[in-house]
Amino acid sequence: MQRLIMIVALIATALMLEGRSCIAGDPLTVASDFEGASVREVEVDEAIRSISFMPGGDPVRGWPCWWYFKINGITPGEAITLRLRGSTATVPKPGSPLQKPLAASWSMPAQATFSIDGQTWLHTGKGTRQDEWMIYTLKSEAASVFVAWGPPYTPTTAAKFVRAMSEKSPSAKAAELCRSRGDRPVPMLHVREGERTPKQRFSVWVQARQHAWESGSSWVAQGFAEWLLSDNADAAWLRQHAEIFIVPIMDVDNTATGNGGKDAQPQDHNRDWSAQPHWNEIIAAQRKVSDLIAAGRMDVFLDLHNPGPDDPTFFFTLPDDQLKEPMIGLRDRFIDLAYARISKIKPLIPMSNKPKVTGANYHPLWRQISANWVSLNGNPHTVSLCLETIWNSPSSTTEGYRAVGNNLAAAVREYLAERPERN
Predict the structure, then answer these.
(1) What's the pTM value of the predicted model, to 2 decimals?
(2) In what order do the strands lie in the sheet with 68-72?
(3) How far is 145 from 118, CA to CA, in rounded Å?
(4) Strand pairing of 300-305 and 128-130?
(5) How far is residue 375's CA from residue 381's CA, in Å, rounded to a whole number?
(6) Looking at residue 74, what DSSP letter applies?
(7) Residues 340-365: pLDDT tens digits?
(8) Ordered DSSP codes for 366-403
(9) Helices in 24-73 by DSSP H: which ranges?
(10) What is the mean pLDDT of the chain?
(11) Which helix (H) or strand (E) segment is 253 a member of?
(12) 48: which DSSP letter?
């Protein structure tokens, strides 16, 4: 009898182990040895198949809110749990901005982003907040999956896209804005079509990602370029009447290394538009924009960002008392045209038609913010704006961001078509 009991117990144990192996045969592991990756404090619980972590990144190199890594060892079809908590990192150096941990909400999207192939990015279901943790459930049909704060857009992605657009259209040229301080290329797309001389053309400058963690802004820039080089007749008009410069990633070094970029030392990229910029990207962009201003043809300058976790899409502007006509009226006209298009995107991209102000009450270095610098130093007709595109929405996907870029480009065309042509 005792022997029979032992045999039954062994069979039961074997069946239990076999059942467990059907659910999860391999141990879960985390990899972050690739471009743009960022994660720390990783703990794997094999019993419940969960991964606990916090964002990585050096806080001296910007806000530690970006996270991006790869999970291996998944049994296809199983559900695993991601347990995220905010970074505990601080910067103890005197004068540094991050004296206490960043609010966890900056690193906790309502839905995490994942991809099996690193190309197509999808949302998980909505996460659940439990005390200091945000809990996401992820079900993968592959043994490995990438997970991230939002859809990643690396310097390699930017270089491939710029090259692909130049190969697609003879109107587009893959260029390099400069080399970064880390000796990385900063890809730029230069677009113009037809025989008009530079003097006869409007000028449009579009840049994204002065803050490395704001990955959605690069997808907006890509959407702008895709519309611009499409077969749309309005896009052809814009190519023929304007010269357009598009920089998908300004802060390539922090983007490549998985750092946040915002408030990076010794200077935030978007506070570096001064008489003596620190970053090579700002030096090069400022020089090119200054040349356009000197030629009297800096028409539209757009700096692309992602805002706070609870903010909709909106424009930043300077207070009216810092500007003169016709700049104020032209700026407001452009905002109206862009709002009319972006606010009607389906599925909905929440957008406010009330711009926020970036004057003296916004930041001590408000004059050195890129869009402000261009407004203060530009031509009387220059429209210079920062567009903040919502990142914490079901529509904050590659498709949603690109749709914003499409409509922003269409708004630029509509606006410039109202302006007197240059001869």
Answers:
(1) 0.94
(2) 29-31, 68-72, 144-148, 111-115, 122-126
(3) 8
(4) unpaired
(5) 9
(6) P
(7) 999 999 999 999 999 999 999 999 99
(8) GGGSHHHHHHHHS-TT-EEEEEE---SSTT-SHHHHHH
(9) none
(10) 93
(11) helix 252-257
(12) T
In the prediction, which pLDDT does 9 show? 43
Domains of the chain: 10-148 (2.60.40.3120), 155-417 (3.40.630.10)
Q: Are 397 and 151 in contact (CB under 8 A)?
A: yes
Integer CA distances (angstroms), 140 to 147, 275, 315, in order: 11, 51, 37
Average pLDDT over every residue of 288-315:
98
Q: Please answer whether residues 252 and 176 qualify as being in contact, where contact means their C-beta atoms are separated by less than 8 angstroms.
A: no
Alpha-carbon separation of residue 221 from 24, 162, 286, 363, 387 (angstroms): 40, 11, 19, 26, 11
Q: For residues 155 and 35, is the Cβ–Cβ distance under 8 A? A: yes
Single-letter amino acid, residue 390: I
pLDDT of residue 390 exceeding 50: yes
- Report pLDDT for 19: 43
Asked if the peptide bond before residue 326 counts as cis, ω within 30 degrees of 0, the response is yes
What type of residue is 353?
Answer: N
3-state helix, strand, coil in the chain (%, to 5): 35, 25, 45
First to last CA, the chain: 103
- Cα Rg, the chain, nearest whole Å: 24
